Amino acid sequence: MNLLAFDTSTEAMSVALVRTGAAPLAHSGEGGAKASSTLIPAVLDLLARAGIGLAALDAIAFGCGPGSFTGLRTACSVAQGLALGAGVPVLPVETLLAVAEAARERTGAADVLALLDARMDEVYAARYWHDGQRWQRQGEIRLCAPDVLEPAPCIAGNAFGPYGGRLPAGGERVEALPTAAALLRLAPQLLAQGLARPAEQALPLYVRDKVAQTTAEREAARAAAAAAARMAP
Predict the structure, then answer these.
(1) Theoretical Cys-Cys bridge with 196: which of 56, 89, 96, 205, CB 3.0 to 4.6 Å?
(2) What distance, in Å, lies between the first and last C-alpha atoms of the chain?
């Protein structure tokens, strides 16, 4: 299976590509607003190194949210542009699910409270349980103060620095981000579950509403989508 995956929902950009019968290739860089100018070159580099074109992909997986508003718009725009041009499906993946998978890969944890710093004294949070075959989310994705969360056997994410003392006590703590490597590991099962979508459904998962984008954010999203469409065969 040939899969491209990327996440730009946090302060880090992560891109990975796996080709049938070959080891995965990876690239990392700065996320957020900077990813709008660096994501596409990173994708082109990995495709060149793998020796395949976009049309050879089985799907394009991306972190759909929650996370940085600008980062999510960049990921969705690029995924949509690449997939439309190449005629391949997209696979939106919850960023918190990718955090849980990163923690499982590192520690073997099967019951994970995944957290991402949402700024403004809040965190994005969701509890996931792995049954040995696949992940299942327990309840809804939440946007809340760190103090109100309940304990879990494993807490994973990037919220320990700003909120460590206010997070639930007990349990293992794992620093983790929604990496493209985690997306690649999740993708085959999610595809088997029928979760691939047409390119036009590459949409962000917002938990905190934002009424309007800044002019810079709109321009960055349009530029990313246009560049992605140009590079597709």
Answers:
(1) 89
(2) 20
What's this model's pTM, rounded to 2 decimal places?
0.89
* C-alpha dihedral (29, 1, 189, 160), degrees to nearest 10: -10
Residue 6 CA, chain-centre distance (Å), reads 6
Say if CB 175 and CB 141 are below 8 A apart. no
The CA-atom distances, in angstroms, between 12 and each of 23, 68, 179, 180 are 22, 11, 9, 11
Spatial CB neighbours of 119, under 8 Å, sequence gap ≥ 6: none
The answer to whether 25 touches 42, Cβ cutoff 8 Å, is: no
Per-domain residue ranges of the chain: 3-94+179-231, 96-175
- The third-level CATH classification (topology) of the domain covering 3-94+179-231 is Nucleotidyltransferase; domain 5 (3.30.420)
Half-sphere exposure of 88 (CA within 13 A, CB side): 24
Domains 3-94+179-231 and 96-175 share a fold: yes
Q: What is the CATH number of domain 96-175?
A: 3.30.420.40
Q: Tokens 């049309």, residue?
A: 55
Q: What is the H or E stretch that residue 190 is in?
A: helix 180-192
| pLDDT 10s digits, 52-107 | 999 999 999 999 999 999 999 999 999 999 999 999 999 999 999 999 999 999 99
What tokens appear for 23 in the block?
Answer: 């080891």
List the beta bridge partners of residue 15: 6, 27
Q: Is 83 exposed, middle or buried (0-12, 13-18, 19+ CB in 10 A)?
A: buried
